[in-house]
């Protein structure tokens, strides 16, 4: 009989505690994230697909096109395309293609990158029904409004042009010299027909 | 002629009041459930999701009515209507204000209980008529639950009738006039167990309206959706509306019997606003309870009734009789 009343009292107490808890939760702000309208703020260590870093000073990527990421990638997901442009120091990145369908987010590319040109992005809501949508050109992603032309250094261009000119000249001179030599060599073989004619005129 | 106008205005006002309540109690419940679980609840349809009930209603009405092959067709079709009829009918006797009573019955309380038990029967009919084992189990459960909980509820109501000497709901309210200590909950001079009696009545009205933690009739986890498993479209809609109508009636009755109906707690400005305030507070507590407690087991539910509520209500009845006789 004593247990009977004890049960009632403890039962009512625990019910009251339950009501207090729900009341407290009712009064706190909902933690629902209205997903399509809002998105989650990702933590900095989250690994999304890699992306090129925009240098805040130049507004360009820092890639030196060494190809270490491409070589380091165990899945062969990265293709770096580059070319030499007149008046620009080093190579110029023309396309950085990441095949995200094979990427395992191991981070070898980020580890390998000497100039710290790539990092993991916080992109987490990718969805598509087509495989081709996962082959990204990271350079286009970095500059969605259009890839800017690298700045041409006039002095460097001048130097380069001079160098080229000099090289051309040197090449031409070399060619001439070679031609002369050839001619000299050929003369006896041809029995000096031409040179004789020259001498005559 | 005067009577006709009274009847018409009653019908129109009741339809408006009921319609708004049934629609927006669903909204309140969903919002309450959301916020208790730290979600937001409906929010996209209209500001704060206020047009959600309208959208739900349109959706339900546009659905096809399918009668299961092995259902008992007439019973299946009439069960939703039969739940709704007593729910609407019972508003006749409820005194919203001193002069705002559709019809003053001298036996209003008796009528309330008589028609309220029809609601339990309609659940059984719906469960039986569906021709589905889950519905049938739910119907049987709901009826045994209703029977078990009607006893303490009626005994508690008898205590009130003994105190007031009347079955007229408006007269019961009138006698609780003045200040808050004149409400039947706090009438310790009539029986020191009155607050307990209120609690018993409150728990019984929870069970009678088939609300969690006593929703043995619905029991989503075990019986699919209980007695309305086989109902779609507006058949289901009527069951849902009847649930909320019963909720309103249960809370109104508790307000009338224990919380002084339209009487003011501080003795000034008695009127329908007090009634609505108290009623909606009780309704909110029903929602609050629903989203706090898990469902009881079936034996636990019957245990509570036969071992706790009935003895307590009987003791309270005897005490009241003693107090009335002695003092």
Output the keywords:
heterodimer, A: 201 residues, alpha+beta, Alpha-Beta Plaits, 3-stranded antiparallel sheet, two-stranded antiparallel sheet, 6 helices, 43% helix, 12% strand, rod-shaped, B: 327 residues, mainly alpha, 2 domains, 11 helices
Which stretches of chain A are low in confidence, meaning pLDDT under 50 for 5 or more residues running?
195-201
Low-confidence stretches of chain B: none
Distance between the termini of chain A: 145 Å
- Secondary structure category of chain A: alpha+beta
Look at the helices and sheets of chain B and give the structural class: mainly alpha
| Helix content percent band of chain B | 55-70%
The N- and C-terminal alpha carbons of chain B lie at a distance of: 48 Å
Widest sheet, order of strands of chain A: 2-3-5
What is the N-to-C succession of helices and strands of chain A?
A: HEHEEHEEHHH
The CATH class label of the domain at 50-142 in chain A is: Alpha Beta
Number of helices of chain A: 6
How do the helices and strands follow one another from N- to C-terminus of chain B? Answer: HHHHHHHHHHH
> Which bin fits the share of residues in helices of chain A?
40-55%
Q: What best-fitting shape of chain B do the alpha-carbon axes yield?
A: globular
The total beta strand count of chain B reads 0
How many H/I helical runs of chain B? Answer: 11
